[in-house]
């Protein structure tokens, strides 16, 4: 193996974001052919993995629970950028924000949480976390989702949408709830969101992992920003082929929102799964529920502002089957989180709910 090859293998997380930006510049104004679409998809996947790597470095430096916020906010930036970009076309985009945000909630609360519970409990028969912090996060996600996604279906405004004044209230309420939670998580009750031992005692840091230096963390932060720019741009290039593929194979247009959410939550899912394997289920829950919270609490206000100049209506209200699935998810999540302990069975239940969500998205 040459010296250059060894250097690249050790520093792939540095190289890949730069490659992502280069590929973005090359193909930005080019009509994409199937080979180009495949190349962009591969580079996009690598850039997402690099973003995870750099987010973990920053998270390790600042410690929990601040670290979980880094990736949650980063993911939300990608999500907002993609939604606004796709909605600006004005084609069948009225429900794109709703479909994407609801998909993010189902993916995080059922897909990521279920997978992490299964991974953590499979090795230890039972996994432990802090019920006080996790229940606070769950309550916030439930309130946010109900106010922004369920309530529009029951107002007197025609259609599953808010009136302008109702939308303003929902946006302000979302920011207020998210802001209060961040203050609680990072200052008022930080200990509620720290990983715990099997006996329920908080763990401050990994015993055998030395925190990176400030210089290393700053470099990773810069590369994380570069990676996010590349991910947003490359995902934008892939959006049209994705829409064409969805229509071509006969899936509902709403499935585009599912694909966007799966794409932007890939870094979150990988980071949460790694934490679960290290017996840090609380970190996994921080990542999953924090991402669901940011997806609603930051995306809805951003879309509300963007709707001023975006064409078409903004339909946020969920359908009947979606509301039933959300209510079932909340009920199961309460039963999972309140004891502060979980076994493999509970992870399996969440994964079955996630499968039900995917199935109903394909065959509503």
From TrEMBL:
TM regions (residue ranges): 12-30, 36-54, 66-88, 100-121, 133-154, 166-184, 217-235, 255-273, 285-310, 316-335, 347-363
Alphabetic keyword roster: Membrane, Transmembrane, Transmembrane helix
A Pfam match: Na_Ca_ex
Domain Sodium/calcium exchanger membrane region: 36-186, 220-362
Membrane topology note: Multi-pass membrane protein
Localisation: Membrane
Entry-linked InterPro entries: Alkaline_pH_Ca-Antiporter (IPR052946), NaCa_Exmemb (IPR004837)
Protein name listed in UniProt: Ionic transporter y4hA
Organism: Leifsonia williamsii
């Amino acid at each position: 193996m040459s010296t250059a090859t060894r250097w690249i293998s050790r520093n792939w997380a540095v190289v890949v974001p730069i490659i992502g930006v280069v590929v973005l510049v090359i193909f930005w104004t080019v009509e994409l052919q199937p080979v180009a679409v495949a190349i962009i998809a591969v580079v996009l996947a690598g850039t997402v993995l690099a973003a995870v790597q750099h987010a973990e470095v920053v998270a390790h430096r600042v410690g929990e629970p601040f670290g979980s916020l880094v990736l949650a906010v980063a993911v939300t930036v990608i999500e907002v950028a993609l939604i606004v970009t796709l909605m600006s076309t004005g084609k069948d985009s009225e429900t794109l924000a709703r479909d994407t945000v609801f998909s993010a909630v189902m993916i995080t609360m059922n897909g990521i949480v279920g997978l992490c519970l299964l991974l953590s409990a499979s090795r230890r028969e039972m996994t432990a976390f802090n019920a006080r912090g996790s229940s606070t996060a769950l309550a916030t996600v439930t309130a946010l989702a109900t106010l922004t996604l369920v309530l529009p279906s029951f107002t007197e405004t025609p259609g599953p949408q808010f009136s302008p004044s109702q939308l303003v209230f929902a946006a302000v309420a979302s920011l207020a709830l998210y802001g209060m939670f961040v203050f609680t998580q990072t200052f008022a009750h930080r200990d509620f969101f720290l990983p715990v031992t099997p006996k329920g005692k908080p763990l401050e840091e990994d015993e055998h992992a030395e925190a990176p230096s400030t210089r290393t963390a700053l470099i990773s932060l810069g590369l994380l920003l570069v990676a996010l720019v590349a991910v947003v741009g490359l995902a934008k290039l892939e959006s049209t082929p994705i829409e064409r593929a969805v229509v071509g194979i006969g899936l509902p247009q709403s499935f585009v929102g599912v694909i966007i959410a799966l794409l932007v939550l890939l870094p979150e899912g990988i980071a949460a799964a790694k934490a679960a394997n290290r017996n840090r289920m609380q970190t996994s829950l921080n990542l999953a529920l924090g991402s669901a919270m940011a997806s609603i609490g930051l995306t809805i206000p951003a879309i509300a502002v963007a709707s001023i100049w975006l064409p078409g209506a903004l339909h946020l209200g969920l359908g009947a089957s979606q509301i039933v699935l959300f209510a079932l998810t909340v009920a199961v999540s309460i039963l999972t989180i309140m004891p502060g302990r979980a076994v493999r069975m509970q992870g399996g239940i969440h994964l079955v709910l996630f499968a039900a969500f995917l199935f109903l998205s394909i065959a509503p």
